[in-house]
Amino acid sequence: MRVRTILTTTMIVAAATACGERSGHEQQAENEAVEAAPQQATASARIDAPAELVARTKIGQEAAKTAALAKVPGGRIASGELEEEDGKLIWSFDIKVAGKDGIDEVHVDALTGEVGAPEHESGAAEAAEEADEAGEEAESGQIQAPAELLARAKITEKAARAAALAKVPGGKIAAGELEEEDGKLIWSFDIKVAGKDGIEEVHVDAITGKVGAPEHESGGAEAGEKGDVGGA
């Protein structure tokens, strides 16, 4: 009888131990899933952040993402960028919620960390905005970007355009190209300012995002350069 009691007690203890281990494993898996959730919410997002602007931030990209996602429960960052808007340096994120139309745009001040209220944009409005941007790009001049060079670029054309235009207030891109110059991959833009002779040429490193100082080219020099290219 005593032997049977000991065996029964041993089995109960073993079962309890196994149950505890299983619960521990389940808890660990749950914790890992929770920890992975924020990473999954931003894993596939493309963020345009020119190095020159990043160097001026006090709020890092990851901190800004976390703050933005806290404003949109259940959201996933679809895209984002670091930009200068109305004199402020901000992280701007488009956040998508599964099953909900459109996106919620959230701004995070890259210097103070202040987070703005989400601004909802319907799917139709989002499509219209993309069409407007495409139209503006088409009007601003043809950009030549060979596929083999584009595949190596880490800075997108859109981000490079914004960075270049920030160097020439009131300017409009007349033409541009992605090229390899002196062993560097660069976006090169010719920017025209209304009422001003010639153009301002601005280079943006397609790998680091570093923006060079504008180089002015007079109308006569510009015409001569076009003539040389045409003659060649």
3D structure, described in words:
22% of the residues are buried. The protein is 43% helix and 29% strand. The protein has a 5-stranded mixed β-sheet. The termini are far apart. The protein is built from 7 helices and 10 strands. With 232 residues, it is of the alpha+beta class. The longest helix has 41 residues. The protein is elongated and about 55 Å long.
Distance between the termini: 106 Å
Question: What summary fits the major beta sheet?
Answer: 5 strands, mixed
Report helical residue fraction.
40-55%
Uncertain stretches of 5 or more adjacent residues: 5-23, 29-39
Average predicted local confidence, pLDDT: 79
Sketch the topology as an H/E string, one letter per element.
HEHHEEEEHEHHEEEEH
Using the CA coordinates, give the radius of gyration.
27 Å
Task: Give the overall shape, derived from the CA principal axes.
Answer: elongated
Main sheet: strand order: 1-2-3-4-5
